[in-house]
Design a protein that fits this description.
The complex is a heterodimer of chains A (291) and B (149). Chain A has 291 residues and is α+β, with helices and mostly antiparallel strands. Helices cover 58% and strands 16% of the residues of chain A. In chain A, helix 3 crosses helix 4 and helix 4 crosses helix 6. The two termini of chain A are 25 Å apart. In chain B, strand 1, helix 1 and strand 2 form a beta-alpha-beta unit. Chain B has one domain: Rossmann fold (3-Layer(aba) Sandwich), CATH 3.40.50.2300. By secondary structure, chain B is of the alpha/beta class. In chain B, helix 2 runs parallel beside helix 3. Chain B contains five helices and seven strands; from the N terminus they run βαβαβαβαβαββ. Chain B has a five-stranded parallel β-sheet, with helices on both faces. In chain B, strands 6-7 form a two-stranded antiparallel ribbon. Chains A and B meet through helix 1 and helix 3 of A and helix 1 of B.
Chain lengths: 291, 149
């Protein structure tokens, strides 16, 4: 492996760990939130069950006595008391909702843990055919806490997008960098947020042997003075602790190593769109490009 | 005395429903505001006895909300409990310095939440009609001021 490639790999690993480290607290938050309402709902369901159990027990006694024709006034009054003390309408309304929300919470936790597993899983040194739509959805879930307070996420992913041969861990890193960058750009643009959220829109499409990924944000745009430098290593306009300037540099290196290209369009005050093109059949392209 | 009113400022509706069920079983009436902007108008309208505040919110985070609450005299004395999934180390001291009466990290047990609510409310008893109150959480003292008419 050439020295430059080894260095790029090392920078890539370091940057990946750095971004994951930045997102770790957010991931814990994304898990803690559903655990909160799952726990609350389980306590509610346990307490509700003790009320229902009491009613069912007395109702069973009433039923047994009635069946043999000896229903006692005491049992009948007990049942009436049970119903009077329990807010049955409230329980009938709330219990199914609590169960549904508990399932939703479990699904949320499973989704974020699954996304984290897929993101962190080493893909190996060789390219494999990858479903980029799935990878993007995964990265959106994994990074949710980084964008959800500043932006709505919109996607338009081409159904049946062709599989693309790639190192998935590297492409995940590129998409994560672009999503986090978009969130930072919007955060800078919306200030304290009282004017509302911005929008991140991710699109995929295929044409003429290429898959194109577009990452649009409604941030404040890239200042003209720095547009020519954003893919340089260590170049950043972010404050200390928010970025090291390796994200876009690595995005370019990774995309080019996949035989693709990356560029952007930016309008001051309106936002930025990054375009990534990846060849569906890079070997054919290389052969075609050869003299 | 009617049920105590609690405003939960929280962007996840499912968290609201879970906490509402727990508090409802303990005679609290819980209301909901999903973001920083709605939280102030809801607080003005409801004048809750206590506020439960998430830190991560759309349209301004929980610290922005506490700052705005402090600037509004009729809301500035309502005890605020921060209830957040964010890291305790980085956020507890900042929350207390911003005026929170307590910091709880999600997931918090219903018992601890209820104990904390009761402790905060006992320091800030419901004022008599025509009066308001102020709690100084650091000194654990309650000052009562009568609004003259």
């Amino acid at each position: 492996m050439a020295t430059q490639t080894v260095m790029d790999e090392q920078i890539s690993q370091t940057q990946k760990l750095e971004v994951i480290g930045q997102l770790a607290a957010g991931i814990a938050h994304e898990i803690n939130t559903p655990i909160q309402y799952v726990s609350d709902n389980m306590v509610f369901l346990r307490e509700s069950w003790s009320v229902i159990d009491q009613i069912v027990t007395v109702a069973a006694r009433v039923h047994d006595e009635w069946r043999v024709g000896s229903l006692s006034t005491g049992s009948r009054d007990d049942l009436a008391r049970c119903f009077a003390s329990a807010d049955v309408d409230y329980l009938a309304n709330e219990i199914p909702r609590a169960i549904d929300e508990t399932f939703e919470g479990a699904r949320q936790v499973a989704k974020i843990v699954g996304a984290m597993n897929e993101f962190a899983h080493p893909a190996g040194a060789h390219k494999a055919l990858c479903d980029l739509n799935h990878a993007i959805e995964n990265t959106i879930a994994f990074s949710r806490n980084a964008w959800k307070y500043v932006a709505r996420m919109e996607t338009s992913l081409e159904p049946n997008l062709p599989l693309v041969p790639c190192r998935l861990d590297q492409i995940n890193q590129v998409t994560l960098n672009l999503i986090v960058n978009a969130a930072h750009a919007i955060s800078d643009a919306i200030g304290d947020g009282s004017g509302g959220l911005g929008t991140i829109r991710i699109e995929t499409e295929s044409a003429d042997g290429w898959v194109t990924l577009r990452f649009k944000d409604t941030g404040s745009g890239i200042p003209e003075a720095v547009r020519s430098r954003i893919f340089e290593p260590t170049f950043t306009t972010k404050p200390l602790g928010k970025g090291t300037g390796q994200g876009l540099f690595l995005a370019r290196v990774i995309v080019e190593q996949h035989g693709g290209d990356i560029h952007f369009e930016s309008e001051t005050g309106k936002g930025t769109t990054f375009f990534i093109r990846l060849p569906i059949n890079p070997e054919a392209d290389i052969a075609k490009a050869a003299p | 005395m009617g049920a105590r009113t609690i405003l939960l400022i929280e962007d996840d509706l499912n968290v609201y429903h879970g906490i509402r069920r727990r508090l409802s079983a303990n005679d609290y009436e819980t209301h909901y505001a999903p973001d920083a902007v709605a939280s102030i108008s809801q607080a003005r309208q409801l004048r809750p006895d206590l506020i439960l505040l998430d830190l991560g919110l759309p349209a301004g985070d929980g610290f922005v909300v506490m700052e705005r609450l402090k600037q509004i005299p009729e809301l500035s004395t309502i005890p605020v409990i921060v209830l957040s999934g964010r890291d305790r180390t980085a956020n507890e001291v900042r929350s207390l310095r911003s005026g929170a009466a307590a910091f709880l990290q999600k997931p918090v047990s219903g018992d601890l939440l209820l104990r904390t609510i009761e402790r905060c409310l006992s320091k800030s008893p419901r004022p008599a009609e025509g009066s308001t109150y102020s709690v100084n959480p650091e000194a654990e003292t309650v000052q009562t001021f009568t609004l003259g008419r």
